[in-house]
């Protein structure tokens, strides 16, 4: 008798420690088991080596449940509420149903669990779904609220449909998988996504590994990072690739018919044989001409009052040998472009509050973030023409940024430590970002863009698309241009505009006439 009591105490202690947990149906007369009608199944703690295959257990609760070395094949767990951290480990969970479950905690499938053919549609809540080293082929997942993390798992032919912002996939094999919905900022790292299908929104997503033959038709991939991706034979027809990054990607035989490739970075990509790309974009590796050695001990950042150069600056390299991205014209042609120091309508500047706005939305009185980070007011526009097509130089840098500006616009070149006309820049030259950040030019081309804008700041400098430039051009010495606008700066500070009523095509008449009296420097 004494031994029996000790054994009972031992068993209770073991259960309390969570070696064995509890599982019970709403009806006390029903025991969880194969094909049991166990409505509102409650599972608490660790459950080992159970056979719940074919169980009907919808509307239940998992509270810190751990199901180990068990068979729940074909079980219906739809509408289950997950509390705390729950996991199914080393178990057979094929064709299980979890649709409509509420993930207020987490539900993890791991340690070689087989969940092929599962149904996990309509998951809601604020928790997470985790798949780690499992087989989840031919499954169907749909989330609205929970996060998802999938690592080292087989998701072949599975479907992910719904709201998946910040989703995380790493080391997955997703041959024929489908991803549809909101995948903003999702990450697919070192994934194998052969013949996968993508739909809807993948803005800011990162996709690395292999996506050979994948279908991205019509997908929003703005600002997405696909650097190094093997997308041989992929379909990007009609996709929005605005400022997407394909650096070092393999795009042989890929299709881009009708895609928006404005600002897209194809640096060092292998794209021979790709369909419907602009002429010349199939250069696999732009090879810059050698850059002369820098002058002794140059400063790495511009001074607070950078030297303003002129048109006699000595070009650092031979002309860029790569073919043009958006135009058949060479970067060294003398074809007339935009008049004056200007940017296109979609050029980006940063307000002092951190928000980025396009030139077309900029207005007098806006406070920009200057090169040093201080506030710098826009007090005047030399040009503000929203419609019409104009020619600009397009400078692609090795950090993926693209700045477009008129040929004579002055921009800071690090090696020379001065502002020089953009038309003198060559592959290998270095542009200045904010602070000590610099980037090398890897391509110089000509592009046709809409709009013509020339905002003037109180400092006479501006940061556009992350690059430090002047608000002036080489038509006249920048110091003189700055002096001619001194009265307008004073009037702005006093609350009115001196030239505001004297605009002709949005250009100040008095300033134009004054500049005609100044001899123009020779090129």
From TrEMBL:
Q: Where is the Hedgehog protein Hint domain?
A: 336-492
Give the SUPFAM superfamilies listed for this entry: Hedgehog/intein (Hint) domain, Pentapeptide repeat-like
Lineage top rank: taxon = Eukaryota
User: Where is composition skewed (Pro residues) in this entry?
Assistant: 287-299
The alphabetical list of record keywords is: Signal
| Bias-annotated ranges (Polar residues) | 309-338
Q: Which residues form the signal peptide?
A: 1-21
Q: Name one GO biological process term.
A: protein autoprocessing
Gene3D superfamilies with a match to the protein in the record: E3 ubiquitin-protein ligase SopA (2.160.20.80), Hedgehog/Intein (Hint) domain (2.170.16.10)
Q: Which residue stretches belong to region Disordered?
A: 277-339
Q: What is this protein called?
A: Hedgehog protein Hint domain-containing protein
């Amino acid at each position: 008798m004494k031994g029996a009591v000790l054994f009972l105490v031992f068993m209770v202690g073991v259960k309390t420690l969570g070696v064995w947990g509890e599982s019970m149906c709403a009806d006390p007369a029903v025991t969880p088991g194969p094909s049991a009608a166990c409505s509102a199944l409650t599972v608490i703690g660790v459950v080992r080596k159970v056979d719940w295959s074919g169980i009907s257990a919808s509307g239940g609760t998992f509270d810190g449940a751990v199901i180990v070395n068990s068979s729940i094949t074909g079980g219906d767990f739809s509408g289950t509420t997950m509390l705390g951290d729950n996991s199914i480990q080393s178990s057979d969970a094929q064709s299980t149903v979890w649709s409509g479950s509420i993930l207020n905690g987490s539900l993890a499938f791991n340690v070689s669990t087989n969940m092929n053919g599962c149904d996990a549609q309509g998951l809601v809540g604020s928790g997470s779904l985790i798949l780690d080293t499992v087989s989840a082929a031919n499954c169907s997942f749909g989330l609205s609220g929970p996060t998802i993390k999938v690592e080292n798992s087989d998701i072949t032919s599975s479907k992910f449909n719904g709201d998946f912002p910040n989703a995380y996939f790493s080391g997955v094999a997703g041959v024929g998988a489908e991803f549809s919905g909101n995948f903003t900022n999702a990450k697919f790292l070192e994934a194998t996504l052969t013949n996968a299908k993508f739909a809807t929104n993948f803005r800011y997503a990162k996709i690395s590994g292999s996506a050979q033959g994948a279908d991205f038709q019509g997908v929003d991939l703005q600002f997405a990072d696909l650097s190094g991706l093997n997308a041989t034979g992929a379909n990007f027809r009609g996709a929005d690739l605005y400022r997407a990054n394909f650096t070092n990607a393999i795009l042989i035989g890929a299709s881009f018919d009708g895609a928006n490739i404005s600002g897209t970075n194809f640096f060092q990509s292998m794209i021979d044989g790709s369909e419907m790309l602009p002429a010349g974009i199939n250069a696999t590796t732009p090879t810059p001409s050698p850059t002369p050695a820098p002058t002794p001990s140059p400063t790495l950042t511009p001074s607070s009052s950078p030297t303003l150069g002129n048109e006699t600056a000595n070009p650092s390299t031979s002309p860029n040998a790569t073919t043009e991205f958006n135009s058949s014209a060479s970067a060294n042609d003398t074809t007339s472009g935009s008049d004056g120091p200007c940017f296109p309508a979609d050029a980006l500047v940063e307000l002092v509050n951190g928000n980025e706005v396009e030139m077309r939305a900029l207005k007098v009185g806006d406070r920009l973030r200057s090169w040093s980070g201080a506030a710098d007011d826009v007090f005047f526009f030399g040009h503000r023409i929203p419609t019409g097509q104009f020619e600009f130089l397009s400078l692609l840098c090795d950090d993926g940024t693209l700045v477009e500006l008129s040929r004579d616009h002055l921009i800071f070149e690090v090696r020379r430590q001065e502002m020089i006309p953009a038309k003198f820049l060559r592959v290998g030259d270095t542009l200045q970002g904010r602070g000590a950040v610099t980037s090398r030019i890897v391509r110089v081309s000509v592009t046709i863009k809409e709009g013509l804008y020339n905002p003037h700041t109180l400092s006479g400098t501006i940061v556009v698309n992350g690059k430090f430039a002047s608000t002036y051009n080489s038509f006249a010495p920048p110091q003189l241009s700055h002096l001619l606008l001194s009265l307008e700066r004073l009037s702005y500070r006093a609350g009115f505009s001196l030239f505001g009523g004297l605009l002709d095509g949005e250009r100040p008449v008095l300033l134009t006439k004054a500049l005609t009296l100044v001899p123009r420097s020779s090129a």
